[in-house]
Amino acid sequence: MKKLLPFLFIICLLFMAFQCEDDEASTQEIEQQALNTSKKAIEDLAATSICNETFECKFIALGSKPCGGPWSYLVYSTSINTEKLEKMVESHNKKESDFNKKWGVFSDCAYASPPTSLNCENNTCIPIY
Question: Which keywords annotate this record (predicted)?
Fold first, then answer.
């Protein structure tokens, strides 16, 4: 029995080590899913906006690339609650930046260009690059 104790101890340590890696991976996946959900909610809100002579088209930087800068620019109009949208985007961008640092995420360092102008076509804001 005494000869088995060191062996059992090593097996327990190995099990615990692999368990931590699984927990880390699942935590990263959960955090990534939360970011995806956040981005979808932002995009869904922006998609409800309409433009016409009453509402102005705008854009906002969305996401946080590990190299810096946004992933893209989201186009929307002032027909929606723009304050809510801006707060959602600010929170999402901060969380994604923190996620990138925490998990050592990397990406290309390509610059995402903002639209040079916005047009309103069929009550939809269209970016011009």
Answer: Signal
